[in-house]
C-alpha cells in the first residue's frame, strides 16, 4: 500500500495536466459476474457523482478482460484471478493491484441432487463424487475467473475434467452457462452473486457451499502508462481510489439483491 500511495503522489505532481474532456470517462475491463449481479448499475452513478468520471464497462471473462487491458483497450481492470492479476502487474501492464472485495463460489445442481453431494464435507469430495457419478457437469470453458478457479479445484483432486465422459465445456458466460446446466439437469460452479441475481432457477439450487477453497477474491488494477501511454490514468486512479475508500467500500457492502449481500469489501 505504501508503494501505491507514493506512486499516486508522483502521478498527481509530475504528470502533465489533462483536459476536462480527457478526464470525463474511462473504460473498465471487468467480469461478467460483477456486471450480471447489477453491482455497476448501482455503483457507477455514485462514482460519477463523487469523482466526475463516467465509467464504461466492458464485461467479459477475466482472461479476456486481461488480454483487452494488455491491448490497451481499457483504463482500469476489475477481475478475479489473483495469480493472473499479479502477473499483469509484474509484467508492467498494471500500476498496482489491490484487494477490493470478495464472495464465494457455489456448486449449483438439480434439487434431486442425483450425485448426492450436498452432505459431503469438502468441495474435493463433492467434485470427486460428481466425477464418479453419471451426472453431467457444465463448465464455462471460457478462460474466465470462474473457469480458472474451477480448473484449479479439479487439479486439487488430480482429475483432468476433459477426460470425464459427462463433462461439457460451453464457452459461455455465467448466465448462459447456468441456463444450459438447468436445461441439461446438470451441475455447474457459479459465483454466488450471479446465482442470487439469476432469474430462471427452475428446479436447481445451491447443493454445495461453504468450503474455504471456494473463496472468490476480486482485485482492482489501474492500467500502466508504461505499456499504454494513452490510458486515462488520472481518471482511472480516481475511480480506483473511490472504490478502495471507506465510502466506496461501504457502498459495495450495502449492495443487495433479493435481501442478500453479494460482495464483501476487504480493501486495506
End-to-end separation in angstroms reads 8 Å
Largest sheet: 10 strands, mixed
**Beta-strand fraction estimate:** 15-25%
The radius of gyration over CA amounts to 19 Å
Helix share bin: 40-55%
Which CATH architecture of the largest domain would you pick? Answer: 3-Layer(aba) Sandwich
Fourth-level CATH superfamily of the largest domain: Periplasmic binding protein-like II
Mean pLDDT: 92
Secondary structure: number of strands: 12
Q: Given the helix and strand composition, which structural class is it?
A: alpha/beta
The count of domains is 2
Name the helix and strand elements from N-terminus to C-terminus, one letter apiece: HHEHHEHEHEHEHEHEHEEHHEEE
CATH fold call of the largest domain: D-Maltodextrin-Binding Protein, domain 2
Q: What is the approximate shape?
A: globular
Number of helices: 12
Q: Give the CATH level 1 class of the largest domain.
A: Alpha Beta
| Spans where pLDDT lies below 50 across 5 or more residues | 13-23
What does this structure look like?
This protein is an alpha/beta fold and 268 residues long. The chain folds into two domains: 2-9 and 17-102 and 217-265, D-Maltodextrin-Binding Protein, domain 2, CATH 3.40.190.10; 104-214, Periplasmic binding protein-like II (D-Maltodextrin-Binding Protein, domain 2). It is 42% helix and 23% strand. The protein is built from twelve helices and twelve strands. Strands 1, 2, 3, 4, 5, 6, 7, 8, 9 and 12 form a ten-stranded mixed β-sheet that branches. The protein has a two-stranded antiparallel sheet with strand order 10-11. Helix 11 crosses helix 12. The chain is globular and about 55 Å long. The protein starts with a helix and ends with a strand. The relative contact order is 0.21. Mean pLDDT is 92; it is low at 13-23.
